[in-house]
Amino acid sequence: MLKRLIFLLLAVLTVSVAMAQQQIRIQITNQYETPVSKITVSAGGQSADYTTDIMGFTTITANPAETITITSQYHDALTVPAGTLKENGVITLHKSFTWKDLLNPMFYIVYGGFFLLLFIVFAETGLFVGFFLPGDSLLFVACIYSSNLANDLFRKIGMGGVRYEWLDLVVLIALISLAGILGNTIGYWTGKKIGPTMFHWRDRFLFKKKYLYDAHEFYEKHGGGAIVFARFLPIIRTFAPIVAGIVDMDKKKFSLFNMIGCVAWVFSMIIAGHFLQKWIFTQFNFDLKKHLELIVLGIVVVTTAPVLIKLLSGKKKVSQPPTN
User: Fold this and answer.
1) N or C: which end of the chain has fewer CB within 10 A?
2) CA distances, 320 to each of 220, 299, 315, 317, 323 (Å)
């Protein structure tokens, strides 16, 4: 009789434990809002591995009365009461820093905000070493988060409260354009300062004075267009204003096309990022914020493709013998 009672109690206990376990669907991302692909959930000495989908969603099994620890490679462990988890809720794991993060536009938005964005736009052309910075992708992604950046800006300057969407966009376009114009101007004056000296350099393996004269002739004919279109091409936009200064491009002409190019670049990126995100989400319920890595890759391909195609398809002209 006692044995039967013990077996009955064990059966009831087993059923109670099983019934206490619940399945909860959650989304796992890091501070850059990038989905985390694999996680491990630990509770009561037991661990289970889960794989998330492309959006970072997975369904875990947990007892609401327990405290669980969620871990993932390259991320800090997070301990939370299972009872606080909500269906389709978002769990954010902190990703440890790696040098690869410097190529992620969200790194600058998360840790620097609007003022770091301004500095990067300036540094891309104002500082010679700024060519590696993610200008296009950073600006496009920043514009998806334009409301967040505007809130950050106005909060820091003490202008909170109710604002209008179009006013936020105008302010962002104006300030980012100004940073780009100043960056190009610094690059131009840097080139203008070292230009006269370079014309007295001796020819070397990577330097020929002929290149300077060719560049001077090119900027005389197409300098305005070069300054405008260089704004849309990574790396080239870093060196275009410097070369313009080296070959002594007319200052007024440079200033005019510098302003046109910067405003056109910033305006197109901000409008595309801001309204494309809203339109795609409204029409297709597709959140671009959850696919930032694909967006960044796409922007890099689009902006570098013209240069790569030109380099790969360019062929030297074969001189034809004169005909009698």
Assistant:
1) C
2) 29, 41, 15, 9, 9
Class of domain 21-93 as given by CATH: mainly beta
Q: Where are the domains of the chain?
A: 21-93, 99-311
- Beta strand pairing call for 22-30 and 89-93: parallel
CA angle 59, 64, 65 (to 5 degrees): 150
Residue from 271, 2, 304, 258 nearest 139 by CA: 271
Divide the 324 residues of the chain into consecutive groups of 10 and give the mean pLDDT of each group. 60 50 89 88 89 89 89 93 90 90 78 83 75 68 72 66 71 89 91 77 66 70 81 78 85 92 87 74 68 62 60 53 50
Q: Are 254 and 223 in contact (CB under 8 A)?
A: yes
Q: How far apart are CA 32 and CA 95, in angstroms?
A: 8
Q: CA angle 210-216-220, nearest 5°?
A: 150
State the Cα–Cα distance between residues 324 and 320, nearest whole angstrom: 12
Decide if 187 contacts 125 (C-beta within 8 A). Answer: yes
